[in-house]
Amino acid sequence: MQVPLQVAFDGVQHSDAVEARIREEAEKLEQFCNRIVSASIVVAKPQHRHHKGDTFHVRIHLVVPDAPDIAVSREPAATGAHEDVYVTIRDAFKTARRQLQDSVTKR
Q1: Spatial separation of the C-alpha atoms in residues 45 and 100, rounded to whole Å
Q2: How confident is the model over 56-102, as pLDDT tens digits?
Q3: Chain-wide mean pLDDT for the chain?
Q4: Which domains does the chain possess?
Q5: H/E element holding 8?
Q6: CB contact at 8 A, 23 and 4
Q7: Is 77 helix (H, G, I), strand (E, B) or coil?
Q8: Which residues of 34-58 are buried (b: 16+ CB within 10 A; e: fewer)?
């Protein structure tokens, strides 16, 4: 990446372990497509439920030259699967990887 990876936490306390997982997933994307110019990731926890666990949101924005920007937003699922931040990160990066593959294939 030409611009360093940007990781932000919104409504969530910063976690070195979560940031490390995000950096690992971003490295995997870079191994697949080394033309990524910049990437920004936001981990958010906007709602505070009292009867059920809180859910996490992960937003990814990738900039690749000669292709439309890739934007992924993993919102909480009805199944409650996104109560675990690591599952939400995995799902978001899986979707970003698919969109990146589609973009590379079209080029």
Answers
A1: 26
A2: 889 999 998 888 889 998 766 555 566 788 988 999 999 999 998 88
A3: 84
A4: 6-106 (3.30.160.100)
A5: strand 6-10
A6: no
A7: coil
A8: ebbeebebbbbbeeeeeeeebbbbb
pTM of the predicted protein model: 0.84
Residue bearing tokens 């932000």:
8
Alpha helices in the chain (DSSP H): 16-32, 85-106
Q: 80: helix, coil or strand?
A: coil
Amino acid at 89: I
Cα dihedral across residues 39, 22, 44, 14: positive or negative: negative
The Cα 13–Cα 34 span in angstroms is: 31
The structure tokens 């109560």 sit at: 83
Give the position of tokens 């199944």: 79
Integer angstrom CA distances of residue 4 from 22, 30, 79, 86, 102:
13, 12, 34, 22, 24
